[in-house]
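User: I'm curious whether this sequence folds into something compact or stays loose and floppy. Could you predict its structure so I can see for myself?
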Amino acid sequence: MGRRRGGIGIALVMGAVLVGASACGHGGSDQATGTDAKGSHKPSAGSSPSPTKPAGPPMLLETITPQSGTTVGVAMPISVVFSNPVAAKARATVEKHMKVSASQPVAGAWHWFGDKRADWRPKEYWPSGTTVKIDADLTGVGNGNGRYGVHGYTHTFKVGDDVRADVSVRGHTMKVTRNGHAVRTLSINAGSAQYPTWNGTMAVIDKQKKVHMTSCSVGISCQKGSANYYDLTLPWDVHLTQSGTYVHYSTGDPDPGSGSARGSHGCVHLSLSDAKWFYNQVKQGDPITITGSPRAKAPADNGYADFNLGWDQWLAGSASGEGTTATL
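Assistant: Here's the prediction. I'll summarize afterward.
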């Protein structure tokens, strides 16, 4: 079970707000919607537009994630969402004005998902303990569609412990490691044959102590009384995709593992005690890797599944190519 989000749930430029309605499961499509949560707070003003640039409406950022001051996992990308489309001809210039620095220099690149979202990820996972800064000095920079930046934006965050979870759908297990050391192996159930779980690596989007999950919100069933109908509020929910994949406890599958015949509607089920324990171990950006499902890998923009693209695929969506972070 789980819930589909109306948007990715990205941190606002001036705050962290996760919005949208929810449900676990297969969802209506194997493609992400490409939409992102719009915040209610306005970005703080930076410097004024340069008088040497052509006049035009402002180019603003909708969101930047991670939120400044946060500690995230090793698979967390920097994700920037623009309020208006950025033309292909302007993307290399825009990328060069979004400078990424790190206390431990790493190779990485920007990648565009459509014309409003650009993510920067390292070629490999971030080293644990790295401090990262993005300086989006966009004042006077054009988006190729007649808009020009009027603000500069700066976010600084830290990469915490290297916490990973590897889920085996066929083995009914989740192996959790911290900084390369095994911590626990948990019993799980994943999706059924009808509603299989996404394969691939998904960085944690967020987590909530309780989530209202409905089958109708992910297009499974809106008919009360049907076999696949559900409308439940369930605890200890770790959010993996915007199409509705969670790791969580389900009252309909209280004792998951190889001895249970139950399958989920696409989520990963843990027992109540294991779900609470796992919830307390993970943070935004920790990689959860699922293997053994008959379903394809989650699309890279279905949440923060950026590492589901190989490096060559990632660079194919970059306007300026691979680079190395500046040193903090």
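Summary: Residues 2-22, 27-51 have pLDDT under 50 and may be disordered. The chain is about 5% helix and 35% strand.
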